[in-house]
Amino acid sequence: MSRQASITAYLLLVIAIFLMAGPILWMVTTSFKPAAEITTAPYEFLPEQWRPENYREAIATLSLGRCLTNSLVLCVGSVLGTLTSCSLVAYGFARLRWPGRDLVFGIVIATMLLPWQATMIPRFLLIRELGLYNSLAALIVPTFFGDAFYIFLFRQFFRNIPQELIDAAHADGCGEWTILWRIVLPLSMPAVATVALLQFVAAWNDYGGPLLYLSDPQKFPLAYGLEQFVSSHSSETNLLMAAALLFTLPIVALFLLTQRTFLRGIATTGLKDS
Fold it and tell me: How far apart are the C-alpha atoms of 8 and 226, rounded to whole Å?
C-alpha cells in the first residue's frame, strides 16, 4: 500500500471513530453540565462549570440501588438458566446420535424465525397460569428452557472438540453427563463466555419483558426504571445523560474485561462443518 493510500485510510478511520465516539463523548460532557448551561450554550462541547452533583441527583431519583439489585438478579439468573439449558441441549445435538436428530435441530433453528411478538401473548398466559406474574422469576424461568441461537453456538463449538477425547472418556467408563461437565465444557470456555456475555447484555437491556410481566415498581430493573426516569425528567437533559451513562458503564466495563475471550469464542465458533 502506498504512503498516500495509508494516509487516506488512517484519515477515514479517524473520521469513523469520531462519528461513532462523538455522541458518547457528548453524553459524557453533557452529564456534567448545569441545566442552565445546556439551554444557553447548547453547542459548547465542554462545560464551563462542571457539576458532578448531576450523578447524585440521578442516582437518588432513579433509585439506582434497588433497580441495580433487580437487574443483577435478573442477569445472573438468566445467564445460569441459559448456560445450563443450552449446553445440555447442544451436547445432545453435537455428540449424541439418535433418530431424527438433524430434523429436530432444524426445527429448533427454525424457531429463530418467530418474532417475539408472535409468542408474547401465549407466554404471558402461561406465566400467569404458573403464578409467576409480577416476579423476576417470570423473566428468569424461561431461560431454563433453552434458546435456539445459543444452542446453535454451543453445538458448533462442541463439534470442534476432537472425537478421540470423547472416545477415551467412554473407554474409561465416563457417562455422557461426566463427559459434558468434565471434558466438553472446560474445553469450551470461549463459547461459555460468549453466551454468558450475550445473555447478560440481553437481560440487562431487556425492556419488553419487564414491561409485560412486572407491575410492581419495587421490582423494576434498570432498563424499565430508566424509561420511567426519562418520562418524569424529559426536560432535564443533564440528569438524563447522567442516568444513561450510569446504565451504560457496567456493560462497557464488562465487555472490556471479557473482550479477548468473547472475540475468540465468536471467531472459533462454526469452523467445523461436519
Answer: 41
Q: Is the dihedral of CA 240, 242, 247, 251 positive or negative?
A: positive
Whether residue 147 sits in one domain with residue 16: no
Q: Which three cell numbers stand for residue 87?
A: 449446553
Q: Which domain holds residue 80?
A: 54-268
| Alpha-carbon distances of 146 from 140, 205, 211, rounded to whole Å | 11, 19, 22
Is residue 127, in this structure, part of any structural domain at all? yes
* Number of domains making up the chain: 2
* 242 and 112 inside one domain: yes
Task: Dump the DSSP string for 82-104.
Answer: HHHHHHHHHHHHHH---TTHHHH
Q: What is the pLDDT of residues 146-176, one digit of tens each?
A: 999 999 999 988 998 888 888 898 888 888 8
| Residue keyed to cell 463466555 | 193
